Amino acid sequence: MGNNQYTEKEALKDALEAQKQISGMFNSFTNECMHPELHKTMLDILNDEHSIQFDVFNDMHKRGYYPVSPAQQDKVNKMKDTHAAQVSSGQNQQKPKEPRI
């Protein structure tokens, strides 16, 4: 048998990918909730999942597994302006789906 070991970096990468998938699923489910209490519960869970994802990302970054370059201020300003323009014109609003739950 070969000595195939799962490295720390691979484990953290898998954990981050799993958290991205989980967050996406909870986000979709939360968007479909019609009952106020269920919607609130799902928002709480979604927030927890995003926190876990952020913690895994930060751990990877601290260990040098996920290097990130600082954003250039001109690009940050451009994104802010683009987003503000979309919000003011209503471009980023999607038509709501029919709730299923």
What's the SSE blueprint?
Blueprint (H helix, E strand, L loop, with lengths): L7 H25 L3 H27 L10 H17 L12
Please explain how this structure is put together:
The chain is mainly α. 68% of the residues lie in helices and 0% in strands. The protein has one domain. It is built from three helices and no strands. Helix 1 packs antiparallel against helix 2. The longest helix has 27 residues. The mean pLDDT is 89.
List keywords for this structure.
101 residues; mainly alpha; 3 helices; 68% helix
Instruction: Specify the structural class.
Output: mainly alpha
Q: Identify the overall geometry.
A: flat
How many separate domains?
1
How many β-strand runs?
Answer: 0
Distance between the termini: 50 Å
Strand content: under 5%
Spatial extent as radius of gyration = 19 Å
Number of helices: 3
Give the fraction of residues assigned to helices: 55-70%
What composes the largest sheet? none
Uncertain ranges: none
> What integer is the average pLDDT?
89
Secondary-structure element pattern, one letter each = HHH
Give a quick summary of the entry:
Helix content is 68%, strand content 0%.
